[in-house]
């Protein structure tokens, strides 16, 4: 079982309709990383026989490069992975 979130975001780019060029990273994806850490904390207090991977990815905004890297060099064989839960953004 794998929980993922990415910690990179775009930073500064083309201005929006109000002229703001800063792409704030709270929803993309500080919220996902905060959730990943909290879920890891909770699982640490709940022993299980299942291996659980908490994966903080990078270079996702540049073409899912972190995900691609893990898929090519997984910690556990991919055929043994029963689920992947990716947290990107969140609801407000």
Please render the helix and strand layout as text.
Layout: E1 2-6, E2 11-12, E3 22-23, H1 26-44, E4 53-57, H2 65-72, E5 84-87
Parallel strand pairs: 1-4, 1-5
Antiparallel strand pairs: 2-3
What does this entry look like structurally?
The protein has 92 residues and is α/β, with parallel strands linked by helices. It is built from 2 helices and 5 strands. It has helices at 26-44, 65-72; strands spanning 2-6, 11-12, 22-23, 53-57, 84-87. It is elongated and about 50 Å long. The model has no long low-confidence stretch (mean pLDDT 88).
Summarize the structure.
The protein is α/β, with parallel strands linked by helices. The protein has helices at 26-44, 65-72, and strands at residues 2-6, 11-12, 22-23, 53-57, 84-87.
Keywords:
2 helices; 29% helix; alpha/beta; 92 residues; 20% strand
What is the typical, i.e. mean, pLDDT?
88
Taking the alpha carbons of the first and last residues, their distance comes to 26 Å
Strand order of the largest sheet: 4-1-5
The helix/strand order is EEEHEHE
Approximately how much beta-strand content do the residues carry? Answer: 15-25%
Low-pLDDT residue spans? none
State Rg. 15 Å
| Separate helix tally | 2
User: Structural class of the helix and strand makeup?
Assistant: alpha/beta
The main sheet comes to: 3 strands, parallel
Give the helix level as a range of percent. Answer: 25-40%
Q: Specify the overall morphology.
A: elongated
What is the number of strand segments? 5
């Amino acid at each position: 079982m794998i929980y993922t979130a990415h910690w990179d975001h775009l930073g500064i780019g083309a201005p929006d309709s109000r002229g703001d060029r800063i792409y704030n990273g709270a929803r993309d994806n500080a919220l996902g990383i905060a959730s990943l850490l909290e879920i890891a904390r909770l699982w640490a207090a709940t022993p299980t026989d299942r291996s659980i991977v908490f994966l903080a990815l990078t270079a996702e905004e540049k073409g899912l490069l972190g995900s691609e890297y893990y898929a090519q060099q997984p910690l556990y064989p991919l055929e043994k992975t029963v689920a992947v839960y990716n947290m990107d953004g969140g609801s407000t």
